[in-house]
Specification:
Residues 277-355 form the Glycosyl transferase family 28 C-terminal domain. GO terms for molecular function: hexosyltransferase activity. The protein is of the alpha/beta class. Mean pLDDT is 92; it is low at 638-644.
Length: 644
Amino acid sequence: MSDHRVMIVVTHLLGVGHLARMAAVGAAMAARGWKVTLVSGGRPAPTVALDGLELVALPPVHCVGTDFATLYAAPGLVADADYFTRRREALLAAFDAARPEALITELYPFGRRSLAGEFDALLAHAHGRADRPAVLCSIRDVLNPPSRPERAEATLACLGRFYDGVLFHGAADVVPLSASWPEAKRLNNRLRETGYVHDGSRQVSTSDEAGAGEIIVSGGGSAAGLPLALASLQAARLVPEKRWRLLVGGSVPGETLDALKAEAPANMIVERARPDFPALLARGAASISQAGYNTVLDLAAANARAVLVPFAEGGEKEQTIRAGELARRGLARHLPAEALTPETLAAALRELLARPAPDWHGIGRAGAAKTADIVADEIARRAVARAGWAHLDAALGRARAARRTLDFWWRDDDATEPTPALEALLANRRRWKVPLALAVIPDRATPALAERLATETGVDVLVHGWAHANHAPPGSKKAEFGPHRPMDVMVEQVREGRRRIEALFGARALPVFVPPWNRIDPELAGRLSGAGYRVLSTYKRRSPAALPGLTEINTHWDPIDWHGGGGLVEEGKLLKQLAVLIEDELAAAPGTLEPIGVLTHHLVHDRWIEGFLDALMARLLGSGVARFRSLAQETGAQNTRAEG
């Protein structure tokens, strides 16, 4: 048990599935003794259990049909700017009152773009707090794919700026996120798979036999299920030997419910949606429903035969993708909405009833508890990061008190040609106003790269091996210039690499050798000066033993988690490493140690690496004691190039 404080923000616009899923997640946390504030921005949903949660109800909004851009404050009354201002103020007040250690936004920024104003205000407000919470986005197993590539980019930009991770309430071996989100790979390092979230407490036990042997038809909590309801009225007449039960959502008007009852055949019961819906499914012969997240999990819990008719109006693809994936695995019969008629529905049902019952047990449904585990880890990780920033600030403060200037330099590796990633790197350099040493691979460098850099200031070019090719034997650490190749071949390649870089880049080329993977045969290192080099740069504190005719100026700090599959190293660990490097500098006499080298690799940066570097540079450059020097300034290398 603990006293963690968590705030969950969710707005359901059409059905109640989003709210139900977040309520189940919150209940799992509350069961551990956490204080959970659930902020709901949708209309009241009496069928959703909120026991144990502190509910904050914003002025509610809803949509009509699939027009998610037009939000209503009440039936027929479009929400205006003043209404959204009230929502935003209430949301920020709820955050201040809750003081959460973790903030979870449901769906945003993948969806709910019509509410971006209030979500962005909340995120900025949370990040403005000195003890900012862990910030997580919660998504279901299937998203509605972005309509334009720039929307996916905007989502990634928002995630990188504000979020620590994405809670994926699904399972990649059932429906991978890549089935619905084109940029799923770019989320891999921040995706936290929870498994499916199912509210098991809804397994209401009743003493009657309602639903036994019946065909259970349901269309969710809103009027979006009416086309399916109308088709089922006629399909029931085509399958008269079965008793049918049509469940109508709570937001469907009473007069519509009465009309459905009047139209129903003798073998069909029409009634409001019931809290014992899972029990009906377990006793029924088959289910006919849409393919919403919560409905599918109820089907899995009941091990039910199911015909899925996904909601697909207004270009919605989420349910269609989910239904298709489940049908492909033999778990359900998929009837596309555009093919829905009483006849096709009856035929699909008869085909389904002739099949053996499916086995849904492969779909785990303990995602709420797993989510709580992950959130606890993120809260702990955030605390370590806060301690890391404090450690760094203390080290910078000691430098100020000692009137010491801390010298840094920045090297970025693996450039070959102009790319969007290179443009982002150069934009960062201009914004930060610090010099950059760009390590370029000679054999793969293009004239286009030289042309692109010709107009840039503050960028020096270093020689990054020859072809960045691994020649180490299997089982050994990667190296292009390790002790695995003939020495004369390696000497000629390092010599030719310098010539090619100087020919392409002219005066901005420095006689600095950067071996790929930062590994070099010591014998070759001793021959670099004879090949025209003046500086060797790898990744470690430089050796006390000087190399003939050569200066070592190395890098010491790299934000990329190379051993963990890429992405950003744990923030707290990175900050501690940098603080220790500064403390080492302060413990030594001025000028004893080489400048602290920051190493980046622009081609593999993600939004989180970029965001962290931006925050770090702001902290360093704003400290008044950090100074970034160019490698040319540090060594005078541009004036000492050798011929040959």
